[in-house]
């Protein structure tokens, strides 16, 4: 990836976190953390990886709320970041945090069994 693509991805990550936290008032959207943004080389599409605290139902509701707010979010990104074309946004869950916490709990369980 080029330096420009990386800079745009990092700037989008920062701005998306701010937009979701302060601008979106949808009650379906829970506590969301933007963990990563991947932008294609031509800056046409962006995949936003999010982490959401809560149950499976709350996560699904948050994803629905974010999907319906794509137009607003894209407009805000376009105003904040000067690009010729604002990338299309797709939201996906970042499962790495849940996976890491599962591994950590398994390791602590093994350690406790070993100590006994």
Automatic annotation (TrEMBL):
Alphabetical UniProt keywords: Cytoplasm, Ribosome biogenesis
Subcellular location: Cytoplasm
Chief location category: cytoplasm
Alphabetized InterPro entries for the sequence: KH_dom-like_a/b, RbfA, RbfA_dom_sf, Ribosome-bd_factorA_CS
TM region positions: none
SUBUNIT field: Monomer. Binds 30S ribosomal subunits, but not 50S ribosomal subunits or 70S ribosomes.
Protein family: Belongs to the RbfA family.
Function: One of several proteins that assist in the late maturation steps of the functional core of the 30S ribosomal subunit. Associates with free 30S ribosomal subunits (but not with 30S subunits that are part of 70S ribosomes or polysomes). Required for efficient processing of 16S rRNA. May interact with the 5'-terminal helix region of 16S rRNA.
Designated name of the protein: Ribosome-binding factor A
Naturally occurring in which organism (per UniProt): Sporosarcina siberiensis
Name of the gene this protein is made from: rbfA
């Amino acid at each position: 990836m080029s330096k420009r693509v990386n800079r745009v991805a990092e700037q989008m990550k920062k701005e998306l976190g701010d937009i979701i936290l302060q601008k979106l008032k949808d009650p379906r959207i829970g506590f969301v953390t933007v963990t990563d943004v991947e932008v294609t080389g031509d800056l046409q599409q962006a995949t936003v990886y999010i982490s959401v605290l809560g149950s499976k139902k709350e996560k699904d509701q948050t994803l629905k709320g974010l999907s319906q707010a794509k137009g607003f979010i894209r407009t805000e990104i376009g105003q904040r970041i000067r690009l010729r074309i604002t990338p299309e946004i797709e939201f996906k869950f970042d499962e790495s945090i849940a996976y890491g916490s599962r591994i950590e709990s398994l390791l602590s369980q093994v350690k406790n069994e070993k100590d006994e």
